Amino acid sequence: MKLNTFNTMVVLFVTILTNSLVTGQESYTCSGYEKGTLTLKSGKSIDTYIYIDYCNPHRFQSGLSTIDEKTFKQYASGKKIKNKSIETYKEKDVVSIALENGKRFKRITYVDTYSGKKIDLLPQRFILEQVTDGKIKIYKRYYRTQNGFIYKPVSESWFNGGEDHYNFMTNNFEILVQTDEDKNPRNIWGTNLKTLFGDNEEVMAKFLDGGYEFREKFQEPAAFAANCDTAFFNALMEMVNDYNGVDAQGAQVSQLQIQ
Q: In this structure, what are the phi and psi dihedrals at residue 167, rounded to the nearest 5 degrees?
């Protein structure tokens, strides 16, 4: 093999290897500041950058940290952010978040009857991702990884870290449903499906006839506690979309009209 040919092959190999490593590194991002609009209980709306951490989602589900445009440019350039540049909000002060990437979040009140802590039996406020609008509203409640009651599979995933942890945290969650704005959302596993969907005869008939994969998913035991995975969620969404009278695209978060 000629030297030039050999050198060319080495360069090509290194380039492919480097690109593969970069791709692997960029295949997931646990956390960062996301551009969006924050609506406060006071009625004020703020265009800002909100810190979202999917590997430790309790951080944004129980309170928010935000920075302005100037600080974000410093952050994006790799400069360290000073604490005085970060604005924080308690969950009680937040009404909703509309991120530029299409995701939406809303403050809700929830009683966690599936937790092993007695304190969770008291109503608590959370900032949760809202994935549908319409008569049936669906929320994703991601798991706490620190400072509180932590499920064993979540704890094991957190200690393993890396991309596997990110995938676990974004593909395992609890699903809350709400049909009445004056009542708190409830866990899908504790919901009577006939009560939830029963006033739509067409949807309910299709469900009873086995027309929805969700019928099988709902009969399967959860992997732990009230856990739902992406397959369960997708099956539920097909049924909810039909009930809400929208197609799959119309029910995506980017199409929500948060109240």
A: -65, -40
